[in-house]
Structure formats: C-alpha cells, structure tokens
Amino acid sequence: MATLLQSSGRVLPLHQAPQARPTTVPGVYRAAARLLAVRGLYQGDFVPDVMDREMCIPHAFRPMSIVAALKCATTGDPHLTSLLSDEAIAVLALRLEVDGEGPLFGGIFDLEAHVDAWGDVESRTTESAVAVLEAAADANEVAA
Length: 144
What we know:
mainly alpha; 50% helix
C-alpha cells in the first residue's frame, strides 16, 4: 500500500517531508534554533532582500529573523504561517522583554512585532537568539 506522497510520483527533499516538521511548540523552538544556528539571525523583516533584487537564493536558505525561523520550522517557508507557529510566537513573546516590557497587545501581529523587536536589539547575536529558543523549548517541555 503506497502513501499519498509515494503514489504521486513526487519525491520530497528531506527538509520538506511531513515527518521532518515539528508537531509541538518545543519542537518548533528547537527546529527554529537549528535554522538560526545554520542560517544566521537577520535583524529586520523576515529575510534580507525580500523582493529578490540582489539575491537569487531561496528565502528559506537566507539568514532570517526569529519570527521567520519559527514560521519556516513549521511550513518550510519563512513567510507562511501555521497555527503551530502562531502558538510558538505567542508563547515566546510572553517570555521576552523589550526595554523591560512584555508585548503591548495580544494579537498575533503585535506578538510577532514584539519578538522581532527583541531580535532587532543592536547587540543581539545569533547565539543569544538560539540560546533563548533552546531555553524556551526546555521550559515548555517542563511545563507540559
């Protein structure tokens, strides 16, 4: 008996296979941390050169913001959202403080902006973003 992927005649790359996608919030954090560790933290909106004027590298292979990494971990695309990535963004936003404050409002765009603001702090490094994501994964696993 063949699965839908096998019967369609398409072979998906390993990073796009459904089994490779995280299914829990801690899994999303760990996958996003791995993405950032390899690709690097981008301080700005999602990925550099969003309009592809200077780069021809696919967006999922460029440095990316924390929000983009969380989205990419669940969908394979730093611009596409999912319920799981939204949940991970919301939980992470409540853990982070920017200038001593948490997120101002509870809408997903406000929560994304808060996480982006934390990642855009001038002294923020890829290593510190990876460490925060790993710590969030550990804390979330303990809480569950």
